[in-house]
Amino acid sequence: MTKFDEATQAIRVDENTYDVCLDPGYSIGGPLNGGYLMAVILRAAVDASPFDHPVSTTAQFHRAPVPGPAQVRVEPLKAGRTAAFARVTLVQDGVPQIEGLVTTATLHDVEPIYADKAAYEMPPVERCVKLPDPKPESGMTLNAQMELLFDPPTIGWLKGESTGRPESRAYFRMTEPQDPDPYVLALAVDALPPVVFSAGGRGWAPTVDLTWHLRALPAPGRLTLLGSGRLVADGWFDEEVEVRDSTGRLVAQSRQLARVGRG
Asked: Using one digit for the tens of pLDDT, what is the confidence trace for 29-69?
């Protein structure tokens, strides 16, 4: 079991309830990363399902859970021959924090009938760069859990050289050696800095609603994350992320609605 597996494990209490312990290692300056929290609830959803994989997840983030004990409640809605549906709630101190709808199924390693090319061709890994290490007092512990190597133009905002477009692109892998799986993908779809940073935004940009789809089981190796947005207006922005595995295959895609950062 890797550190990430341990940090996302869900222990079954009864037919519909799981105990979890939210790990402080996945903090972004205080709040816990939304992708990490989705991985936690998906552990419970898949364990309670007759199928193996979380193929579609929609999560609404009502509050920002804090590190420590919590529970995941799974309410089965319907199960058929190829898919099952459930409502999943992360509860902390008796208060619902995240509400999710999860569809599970079992994916197979088959050749696609059609597969498009990546939306953007990344430069070679050796031409990509890391963000500076955060100061210990920042509470940005998430950075230590994963390695992100960025397409340089998309982090120009660090030096006041934003592209003016909502975008973020990077190669991704866990710091601790681990082949990507559906739970790592849940983290990956929310691992990039908010795309609004490249459009001039700053500060914590809380996710309100995030939907992602598992399209295929990833091959071992680095993932490629391609993030973009279409509209930044009235304090809101959208973010879409395309995830490709080391073979270039599309393995996950997501869309979220978030608030433009303050401060």
From this structure: 888 999 999 999 999 999 999 999 999 999 999 999 999 99
Distances (CA, A) of 14 to 17, 18, 19, 78, 83: 5, 7, 10, 19, 22
What is the mean pLDDT of the segment spanning 254-263? 87
- With 0-12 / 13-18 / 19 or more C-beta atoms within 10 angstroms meaning exposed / middle / buried, residue 262 is exposed
Element of type H or E holding 45? helix 34-47
Task: Tell which residue, 217, 141, 130, has the closest CA to residue 180.
Answer: 217
**Token pair belonging to 210:** 């995030």
What span, in angstroms and rounded, lies between the C-alpha atoms of 261 and 70?
27
Q: pLDDT tens-digit profile of 118-129? A: 989 999 999 999
Which residue, 62, 67, 76, 59, is CA-closest to 23? 67
List 170's β-bridge partners, or say none.
150, 225
Give the Å distances, CA to CA, from 26 to 18, 68, 118, 164, 236: 20, 12, 28, 29, 24
Specify the pLDDT at position 45: 98
How many other CB atoms are found less than 10 A from the CB of residue 94? 6
Domains of the chain, earliest start first: 3-106+124-259 (2.40.160.210)
